[in-house]
Amino acid sequence: AVVSTQSTGHEQMLARFDFERLAMGFSRVEAFGPSFGWDKNIEFGYNPRLVGFSPRPANMPVPDVISNGNREIFKVDIVRQTHELLNGISKGYLINSLGRRVPVSLNALGLCLEASTTASPNHSLYGDIHNNGHVIIAYSTDPGGVLDIDKGAMLESFTAARDPMFYRWHKFIDIFFEQHRKKLTPYTLNDWTVLRNVEITSFSTVISDQDIYDLSLPARLDTTNNLYNYMGRETLTIYDPEPKQITNFGIKKSVPFNFKLQVRNNGRADARAVFRVFIVPDTREPLDVWRLLAVELDRFVVPIKAGETREILRSDKDSSVVLPPEYTVGHIMQGQVESKPPCGCGWPRNLLIPRGNESGMRTKLYVLASNWAEDGVEPDKGLFGSISYCGKLGRPYPDKRPMGFPFDRKTTWDEVRDPTSGKIYMPSFEEAIINKTPNAAVANVTVTYLAEFNEPNGGDVEGAAPEKEFFVSTTTDKKLEEKIVYEPDYSSSEDESNIVKRSLRSLKFFYG
Length: 512
Known about the structure:
Layout: H1 2-23, E1 65-68, E2 71-74, H2 75-91, E3 93-95, E4 101-103, H3 106-114, H4 123-126, H5 129-138, H6 164-181, H7 189-192, E5 198-206, H8 209-214, E6 226-239, E7 243-254, E8 258-265, E9 271-281, H9 287-290, E10 295-304, E11 309-315, H10 329-333, E12 361-371, H11 372-375, E13 416-417, E14 424-425, H12 429-432, E15 440-449, E16 473-477, H13 496-506, H14 508-511
Parallel strand pairs: 6-15, 6-16
Antiparallel strand pairs: 1-2, 3-4, 5-8, 6-7, 8-11, 9-10, 9-12, 12-15, 13-14
């Protein structure tokens, strides 16, 4: 689905990227595109250090034209198309190829920006802004193709996210969707209290003693409403064509945990509740800015009988966000591969929980239960596997609610009068919405990075690094096809380059 990959999948990548930057003490990423620095140089250089891709020096100008084979992309066209699309959003309608008005919707915007020549309402008017932006940045080092220089990382979907400009460009692309959402009717308390009879009486995260023991974690870790990440070690098997092992391969991992909910159905009828779980940095910002940082962690359906009180334990391993398990060469050799491979859409399992920081990052964990009988495309079925970003291959997206609900648009509420003082004031989001929504709950959760812990207590961990680093070893077969894992290398004359460089070095696992 276009909106899945364009509006929501990329927005979730940006939310996570900003989440990680805030954890490191840096500001959010800034947009780059027409009217957002487009006439200035691309200040950040980047060297992907990958076969077939060229580096981009710092302060390269945005080319006026790209000649890519038989295709030319003009910078001025992207500017014009941007203005046309924003003008349509402000008016509430687009002009299709027949000259007729088409109501603006997330789907229509996705089709314009992703720009299939046949699916776009008007390809000649609105162009191919998203893809052409990738191309023009990727070929900025050799726009005319006269130097025979390889393309930049921004050209290919499997390498683009390595380049810091990916996030600045997509911050710009998301402006189109946000401008449309600002014109939609904001949510109110009634939009949150969509399953009043189902009450969430408690909500937390828990880590089992067994997981602490299995990973030889320090026993002093707090296991309730605390999430932990660490840098682990893996041994990779590369088949070239004979198997060879690469040891001490560093990868960010999380300590396993469960969502724990106590839920009561106060109604007279059975219910099928869909639980939507989000984590947000506790930044104390206005809601309409802060909601853009909401990272979806899970979405799952649970039946609850009339009058039943039920405890729900949901493992992070079952998250609807993460990629399905990957097949390795070892699986193939052992005949353990299904005839129909799973869809490759989702977030890497080891990156489900944002990194946090060594001192413990304060976050808010929200859950909202809504009525699956109304929200489900097939309400008699549950949600299984990696469905949050793309749904199921070849089938309709299973959830009728907008992706990102209830943080997909603004929520408003009224001022109230203090019963004691008589003064009128504006209550907080939690006071006005969460505390008045029985089918919602919030938990204050701390996300900690354990890199500064000493060697694990309680046992030998093969490959563990000495002192001040926290390593746990596992072994995984994985075929690497010319994917060379290096630390990103880029430079700039601007001061912020040091910030980005330090930030992304700390987030090396994100790009590796």
